[in-house]
Amino acid sequence: QVLLVESGGGLVQPGGSLRLSCKASGGSGRYYTIGWFRQAPGKEREGVSCISSNGGSTYYADSVKGRFTISRDNSKDTVYLRMNALKREDTANYYCATVASCNELGNIKARGQGTQVTVSS
User: Fold this and answer.
1) How confident is residue 27, by pLDDT bands cut at 50, 70 and 90?
2) SS3 state at 59
3) 4-7 — which CB contacts under 8 Å span 24+ positions?
4) Main-chain phi, psi angles of 113, to 5 degrees
5) How far, in Å, CA of 24 to CA of 79, rounded?
6) Which of 2, 40, 108, 110 has its CA at a distance of 20 to 30 angstroms from the CA of residue 30?
7) What would the pLDDT profile of 34-79 be if each residue is shown by its tens digit?
8) Lowest-confidence pick of 22-26, 35-39, 46-50, 83-87
9) DSSP, res 27
10) Which residue from 114, 86, 92 is spatially nearest to 46, judged by alpha carbons?
11) Closest by alpha carbon to 110, among 49, 42, 37, 61?
12) Is pLDDT above 90 for 94?
């Protein structure tokens, strides 16, 4: 069973940037399609981005398109989410998860605990 650990969250001002990391261990993370999700208190979970196992296919929610970039380094079993031009509404707990495919973000197999992103002045 793959174990996912997120890092890179924090407090940032509106317009700022952060890079989140999702490190896979306990299994070969390079074979998994990975999605990034976020959930704020009182709101539904949102699938914000996804990347296929070889990095050839990506997905972005409309709410982050043009601002977030997903990438992966399979030599490090790590998936990254670069977040630019952050807005207050991006504030949430962000977590990564293995999914069947980027067309099936509702089908989460394993997930990490998450890392908090707070956008505030």
Assistant:
1) low
2) strand
3) 4/29, 4/95, 4/96, 4/97, 4/98, 4/110, 4/111, 4/112, 5/112, 5/113, 6/94, 6/95, 6/96, 6/112, 6/113, 6/114, 6/115, 7/115
4) -80, -25
5) 8
6) 40
7) 999 999 999 999 999 999 999 999 999 999 999 999 999 999 999 9
8) 22-26
9) S
10) 92
11) 37
12) yes
**68 near 60, Cβ under 8 Å?**
yes
Q: Which long-range contacts (CB under 8 A, 24 or more apart) does 79-82 make?
A: 79/21, 79/22, 79/24, 79/29, 79/34, 79/36, 79/51, 80/19, 80/20, 80/21, 80/22, 81/19, 81/20, 81/22, 81/36, 81/48, 81/49, 82/17, 82/18, 82/19
Residues 30-39: pLDDT tens digits? 789 999 999 9
Single-letter code of the amino acid located at 62: D
Tokens 């981005």 belong to 49
Residue 6's identity, in one-letter code, is: E
